[in-house]
Amino acid sequence: MKSVPSHPPLRSFRHQRQRLSRHFLPILSGIVCCLLVLGIHHTLAFARTPSVNQARIIEILQSNQVYIQNRPARLNDVAKFGEQVRTGQARTALRFNTGAIGRLGQNAVITIGQQCLQVQRGQVLVNGAASSCTRSVVTGVRGTTYVLSVDDQGEEEIRVLEGEVAITPVSPNSRNLDRSRPLVVNGGRRVRVANGAIGPIQPLTPDEYDTTLNSTLFNEFRRDLPGVRRLRRSYEQLFPQRRFPLAPNPDRAASQGWDISLRLVRLTNSNRAQSPAISIQFDVFNKPVTRYANVVYQIYALNPNNNRWETLYSNVGARLIPNQAGTIDLPSEIVSVNQLNLRAIGKTPLENLRLQARANLRYDLQQGALDVRLNFVHTRPYREVPVAIGG
Fold first, then answer.
1. Which of 106, 125, 140, 371 could be a cystine partner for 46, CB 3.0 to 4.6 Å?
2. Phi, psi of 152 (to 5 degrees)
């Protein structure tokens, strides 16, 4: 009678190990690959941020000390790739070619770069798809709202108000990106950078968040931020017991898939040889896909003698609107006071009139109704029309 061994032979162990390897190694390899793909996808999602290579001046506040390449800038002037935008005792708003909005505080300096908005000094608010960079870091964004500050000592701070920002440090020796150390900062967080070293991620306190929203990067600007609704949702999720500090834009309206803001702005000019002007600002934050779309701008005044609205201005030829959906960058309609038909209201001074701006839309849906008409109206006494620096 043969004895039964108390342990299986070595060959059995090897056989079982080979079977396990055949079954589990593919599974383990699949898990590793999935993790790698997820990590690469997350990195590429930030890397796919459209290039910033152009910026249009859409607002100038406080004074005319806004410069492109040290030349005085006016509304609708464009800073191109490699050109510097600088503010003195003034603030300005820019619309980038990506559709994102940037706002510069006083004494700020930026350069329009191909892959990022290069911030050399001051405070810059970015709302939308626009990456920025400094001497120390490069940010990658996905449709977010953040504030990047560089003080006089070169210390930097990034406050993410909504969305996500991926921060990649720049190697101090080679000046190349150190892609091995990206840092993702979520909404309601901030990071400081001193001497090229990125500090820890810290939460924004409610008071710090409110201070940012009540700063000069938000106050007095006429044009609403396209992402203000997401910003509000982020704030209310972070601080459910507090009231969102930003008041709603009274000039904003929505109808039939269009989300717009319409307003009048009085433009002053340091060049006294040019007459003052009125700007009709029609901002499209969202629109449906169209086959054809245009807008006609008009300015009316209420005649105090007969209480009738009289036409002071109507543009010749409709202004075309691009057909794609989403946010659309439209130039302001600038009307010199000399172009207004002031004879229609008799001898009443312009300062005593009540004005009305009208944006008359006509469009064909790509798949649907044709020749759709939609009218937006904005009414305000001339004396209450905000004043901005114009061209």
1. 140
2. -65, -20
Q: State the DSSP H helix or E strand holding residue 220, giving kind and residue range, or none if neither.
A: none
**What's the sign of the alpha-carbon dihedral 243, 246, 250, 256?**
negative
**Mind listing the pLDDT tens digit for each residue in 225-244?**
888 889 999 999 999 999 99
Angle at 379 between CA 373 and CA 385, to 5 degrees: 130
Give dist(CA 297, CA 155) in Å, integer.
46
Residues with pLDDT less than 50, the chain: 1-14, 17, 20-21, 24-47, 174, 272-273
Can you tell me the distance from the alpha carbon of 64 to that of 72, in angstroms, rounded to the nearest whole number? 7
Note the pLDDT of residue 171. 67
Judged on CB neighbours under 10 Å (0-12, 13-18, 19+), 170 is middle
Q: Please give the Cα distance from 161 to 147 (Å, whole number).
A: 8
Q: Which two tokens stand for residue 286?
A: 């969202």
Contacts 24+ apart (CB under 8 A), 191-198: 191/157, 191/158, 191/167, 192/155, 192/156, 192/157, 193/134, 193/136, 193/137, 193/155, 193/156, 193/157, 193/158, 194/155, 194/156, 196/135, 196/136, 196/169, 196/170, 196/172, 198/136, 198/137, 198/167, 198/169
Q: Which two tokens stand for residue 167?
A: 């921060």
Whole-number Å distance between alpha carbons of 328 and 321 = 8
Residue 378 identity (one-letter amino acid): H
User: In Å, how far are 74, 103, 388, 389 from 77, measured between CA atoms?
Assistant: 6, 15, 15, 12
Amino acid (1-letter code) at residue 353: L
Under 8 Å between Cβ of 112 and 103: no
Residues 6+ apart with CB under 8 A from 35: none
CA distances from 23 to 12, 28, 34, 149 (A): 17, 9, 18, 54
pTM: 0.72
Q: How far apart are CA 278 and CA 284, in angstroms?
A: 19
